[in-house]
């Protein structure tokens, strides 16, 4: 496992982190005991950064991560979690107001809940689950989070940028108000490399959805959609004509990447690791085998320049969360 600086925090984190949304059960049925085993396997293999949130399985993901931490006696594991706003802005709102979305009572109650579920005395990284650019001027959220830091309940603060809106973080990055930013970055959503990663010197960059919610694993077939539980996250994301269009684009990428990598998953993961300003990439993992497969890409190999030029033509930012 290779490690990278986490912005200016002084932390060294594994460049492959552990995305824990799926442990909450929103992606399908889960076995908590297996989830804990998978987390411990990841820790033993050198992963030291876990990302979860209070809304993942209505807190269940945090609870499972907490169980794993309680039974772990090895090296330090950095845990990042998130607090959602009292009201989410509409998907099509371009400039929603930040003030009032994270009132003091809400942030404090959320932090206490996360501390209890995780079983820790201090949250390593607390992220606002929905960042709005107006927040660089409406700073009520920052005052409360700084108070929580002074009280020892939160160490560092960060934000998660709204889906497929990397430009929303540019001004915040330049101002250096937070320690970390989380953003979607993958073979389809390539814009953060130009828009965000070089916008400021302070924040660490956490890359989520590196495999496009499963599409870029390259393992899908025309029959895959019918195997997903109807109310699961992937079934909602790729409903209707979305699945067929995504699969068609995936097949084109597989053909393009085949001369360079044995699988599309390897190409996708190595692409997200290629920008030096990326601190950690957090794929979702449910089994030890998935952990091992992702860790194998942490070897420092450069992404082929010829392929990088070619995949740039396959950018396809779209928001399937709406």
From TrEMBL:
Domain of life of the organism encoding this protein: Bacteria
Pfam families in alphabetical order: Aldo_ket_red
SUPFAM superfamilies xrefs: NAD(P)-linked oxidoreductase (SSF51430)
Domain NADP-dependent oxidoreductase: 15-311
Family matches, as InterPro entries: AKR2_Oxidoreductase, NAD(P)_OxRdtase_dom_sf, NADP_OxRdtase_dom
Cross-referenced PANTHER family: D-THREO-ALDOSE 1-DEHYDROGENASE, NADP-DEPENDENT OXIDOREDUCTASE DOMAIN-CONTAINING PROTEIN
Protein name: Aldo/keto reductase
């Amino acid at each position: 496992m290779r490690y990278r600086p986490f912005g200016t925090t002084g932390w060294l984190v594994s460049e492959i982190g552990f995305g824990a949304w799926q442990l909450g059960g929103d992606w399908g049925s889960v076995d908590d005991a297996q989830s804990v085993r998978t987390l411990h396997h990841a820790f033993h293999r050198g992963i030291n950064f876990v990302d979860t949130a209070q809304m993942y399985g209505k807190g269940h993901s945090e609870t499972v991560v907490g169980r794993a931490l309680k039974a772990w006696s090895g090296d330090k594991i950095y845990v990042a979690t998130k607090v959602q706003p009292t009201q989410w802005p509409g998907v099509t709102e371009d400039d929603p107001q930040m003030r009032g979305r994270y009132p003091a009572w809400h942030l404090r109650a959320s932090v206490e809940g996360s501390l209890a579920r995780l079983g820790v005395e201090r949250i390593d990284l607390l992220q606002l689950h929905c960042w709005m650019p107006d927040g660089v001027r409406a700073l009520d959220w920052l005052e409360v989070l700084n108070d929580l830091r002074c009280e020892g309940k939160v160490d560092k603060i960060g934000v998660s940028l709204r889906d497929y809106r990397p430009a929303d973080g540019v001004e915040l990055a330049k101002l250096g108000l937070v320690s970390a930013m989380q953003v979607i970055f993958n073979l389809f959503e390539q814009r953060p490399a130009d828009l965000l990663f070089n916008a400021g010197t302070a924040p660490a960059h956490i890359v989520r959805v590196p495999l496009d919610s499963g599409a870029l694993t390259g393992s899908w077939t025309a029959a895959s959609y019918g195997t997903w539980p109807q109310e699961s996250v992937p079934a909602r994301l790729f409903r209707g004509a979305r699945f067929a269009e995504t699969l068609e684009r995936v097949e084109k990428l597989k053909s393009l990447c085949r001369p360079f990598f044995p699988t599309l998953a390897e190409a996708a993961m190595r692409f997200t690791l290629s920008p030096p300003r990326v601190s950690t990439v957090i794929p979702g993992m449910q089994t030890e085998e998935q952990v091992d497969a992702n860790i194998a890409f942490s070897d420092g190999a450069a992404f082929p320049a010829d392929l990088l030029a070619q995949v740039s033509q396959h950018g396809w930012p779209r928001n399937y969360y709406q």
